[in-house]
Fold:
Amino acid sequence: MAEPGAAAVGLGRAESGGGADGAGAGPLLPREENGVDGRAIRVGTRRSQLARIQTDSVVTMLRELYPDLHFEIVAMSTTGDKILDTALSKIGEKSLFTKELENALERNEVDLVVHSLKDLPTSLPPGFTIGAVCNVIGTSSLRRAAQLKKKFPHLEFRDIRGNLNTRLKKLDEKEDFSAIILAAAGLKRMGWENRIGQLLGPEDCLYAVGQGALAVEVRAKDQEILNMVSALHDADTVLCCIAERAFMKHLEGGCSVPVAVNTLLKDGQLYLTGAVYSLDGSDSLKETMQTGVSYPHQNEDGPNDDVQHVGITAKNVPGQAQEAAENLGVELASLLLSKGAKHILSVARQLNDAR
Structure:
């Protein structure tokens, strides 16, 4: 995964970059050899500038793979974009940044949707699957605050909501914050590296499950679209994200509790570090496990083609490797639970609900 664990401390004032425009609608196309029928491919996305940049990057890759197809970007606002005065961990809705997009997907108003993978719950609604995982972007807050409170107990942490533009504007125009913690990958994607005052690596701050990755969500039974987007899979990122999502799912974690990970794939070995924290960072558990994921790719015709691992369908990644990655996440979560993670998470949920 591309710099998934790097968080950035933003300081001071700088000029903002411009937005990204989507493609317009065009004529229907004849059936091509790739199997996608004669319709424009409609790509759903959030309206935020960063979401549009992320979606444009996916569409650019698709256009390079399928130059004869036409792609139309459909932007919409989500619940999470509209509720900006409440911390994400307090809202309680699991699909804050995805529900409206998934509704459009279900109604056939779009053919695929681009998300930050961290925004997708580990259990997707029936009929949907993640058809491609690409390595790009991410962000979070409770998890970061808990870790940094442990390391820097003299600092005071407060919630800050909004897209990157909004949060940086709050830093520049108000005296409420001396600095803000953001995903470095997001700032770099926007071309705002000059806003980064300090980088925090995994030794300072583990990252959120799925952070750094983009997910392309499709209808599970739409084989033409699923086959088309599967070419976008980054195999290493797929295995990392399967392990992370399995870890989160087995812990029954979420945005209301601080759960953090760090994943590394090297020499055929997948290393997963997982941790849970109390809200103030004073109580924590952290462990690392590894497994081999070096398996040859086999042609698995038939029903096994559509096997999902924590919501991800990856036909071009060896099934044994995906299974090993998922088992790794479950085993690490089981280890932490055996050492008391359930109590830490339960107390964190209760305190967060009471705030």
